Amino acid sequence: MFRKILIANRGEIACRVIRTARRLGVATVAVYSDADRDALHVEMADEAIRIGPAEAAKSYLNIAAILDAAKASGAEAVHPGYGFLSENPAFVEAVEAAGLVFIGPSANAIRAMGLKDAAKALMEKAGVPVVPGYHGEKQDAAFLAGEADTIGYPVLIKARAGGGGKGMRRVERPADFGAALESARREAESAFGDGRVLVEKYMAKPRHIEVQVFGDKHGNVVHLFERDCSLQRRHQKVIEEAPAPGMTAEMRAAMGAAAVRAAAAIGYSGAGTVEFIADVSEGLRQDRFHFMEMNTRLQVEHPVTEAITGLDLVEWQLRVAAGEPLPKRQEELAINGWAFEARLYAENPARNFLPATGRLSVFDLPDGARIDSGVRAGDLITPFYDPMIAKVITQGSTRAEALAKLETALEQCRVGGVTTNAGFLARLCRLPAFAAGDVDTGVIGRAGETLLAEPDAPEEAFALAALSALGFLGAPADADPWGEIRSFRLWGEAAQTVFLDHGGAEHALRVTTLGQDRFRIERDGLATDIRLCVSNGRSLQVDLDGHVLPAMVHSERADIVVFFAGHSHAFARAEQASHHGEAAAGGDRLSAPMPGLVRIVSVEPGAHVAKGDPLVTMEAMKMELVLAAPRDGVVAAVPVAVGDQVAEGALLLALEPEEAA
Ligand code: ADP
């Protein structure tokens, strides 16, 4: 085994690798960019070395700087994590040329699977079924449109170098093909530096089922069963599980054998995943699964496989890279129970999943689940990297038990300061189709808008926000949270009114002290009586008419976040509320929701636009954001140009005032 390894990554995966290395007595070296100087992975590692500025291209993708760090630290091997350089064959070669071990497959194996088109051709030859479509060299638009006609609509355009759903466009009809192709190419060019695409038949009712494989340097390959990753949004995985619901022993054997054949065909060593798409319009059928691609690295969702097999896949990676044979043979592997993983993102589901940035004022995740995270309270979520902030993993002896635990765990995720998808994830757990195991990649899309919107704040949340605003809950940093309440009580039964912003409207709340730690809060004629039972810093227990419930309130400057009954609700003190976000989104102005690059400006001053028309396309956090007209009107000014780097809140476009339009 190695004595010291360098982890060429950041965030949760760097932390996760460090944990296993530590358990095995392997010293760890972290690398970090300027944006990550105080990051958790830096704190956790035995040593850490700066590799460059915040932009990934100059730090986590900077091969020379990473190799310098490896040499300076005396590391013997490099773990790439996922993303960044993990599937870059040139990196593998550079690591090996420096006399170090790459913890992963050979450069040749990565190359063979690196491009979706070449991989499909290779798999076809190895007798693995592939998705019907065009995966050849020709790239001119007219030719590809012709291929799409031959395949039959709907089709899926995919970047050959793609990953994470980027550069992928589903096209319903021939008239939309040209625009979709251009947009896919643009995204692929910017994300991967390769705009070439393939065109595939879009499956009617597809399920994403992938098989975890492992090879060693002695020619052994095994599979560690399947994961179902069908719960997706815009082709990106949201919740994963293992095993796959409804999987039969025969189909599992057939998919496992195909995956092992795929890995063996390229002399694979280390952890890999063979992704299949199954057409389930007539249920799971052995003759209806097709190879999509192979990921030649550890996957984000590997913990669900660890949960059902009882293995540590990072340990296997280290052992195999160090030259040991696979720890177990195929017949020694078995599935035990069920596991789920949900990806917790800093993003706003109600605003088309716009990535969110900001400081995590509260980051309190539940104990009843495995939490893989790379952040802690107080950390800044920057626009530089992937906005995933944690993975929540649960396990049970049955699917229903594991899912119930996931729902509970998600309801207990308390994150403040940055909007997350926690509520959305919890609502997904309650979808009848998902709960029944009737999954396909369209489940989220069909469930519609109700999934996206946070429920209205209940009166109890208003009441707690009002108590916080008036100082009854104590300042967060206050050593004695009861101090203010005691002093207040000297005033007797005084009533006060406080104004709070919530959901874009201002609310007046009247708070009356009824007695020791007892309050009545009135809003719009509704009264809520609350008794504070336990207050332990921000965590509270409140008595609502005899029903004692937990709650948590965090306040920082004008902002107040109330966590109550599985939801978080944001309020702001009305007098001091900072309106910049809302004002920028309103009537006449289109502002940048986050820092990014202006990619397309679709209109000029004087143009008449209709509400919903795409006006400016930005690229931020490696995604395309299309900013649409907030209302009908006439464009007054466009102060930005294609190629401009803009700050959050920057004015992108102004409409003429309503009266003039
Ligand atoms: P990426 O590498 O960008 O993640 P994949 O090829 O793995 O792209 O596909 C991502 C997801 O897109 C799949 O999990 C599946 O939901 C969907 N998908 C891919 N190919 C097809 C297809 N031919 N028909 C329908 N859905 C597809």
Automatic annotation (TrEMBL):
Its cofactor is biotin. Residues 580-656 form the Lipoyl-binding domain. CDD domains: biotinyl_domain. Keywords: ATP-binding, Biotin, Ligase, Nucleotide-binding. It comes from the Bacteria. Gene3D superfamilies: 2.40.50.100, 3.30.700.40, ATP-grasp fold, B domain. Pfam families: Biotin_carb_C (PF02785), Biotin_carb_N (PF00289), Biotin_lipoyl (PF00364), BT_MCC_alpha (PF21139), CPSase_L_D2 (PF02786). InterPro entries: ATP-grasp, BC-like_N, Biotin_BS, Biotin_carboxylase_complex, Biotin_carboxylation_dom, Biotin_COase_C, Biotin_lipoyl, CPAse_ATP-bd. The keyword Ligase applies. One of its GO terms (molecular function) is ligase activity. Residues 120-322 form the ATP-grasp domain. Residues 1-449 form the Biotin carboxylation domain. NCBIfam families: PRK08591.1 (NF006367). This is Acetyl-CoA carboxylase biotin carboxylase subunit. It comes from Shinella kummerowiae.
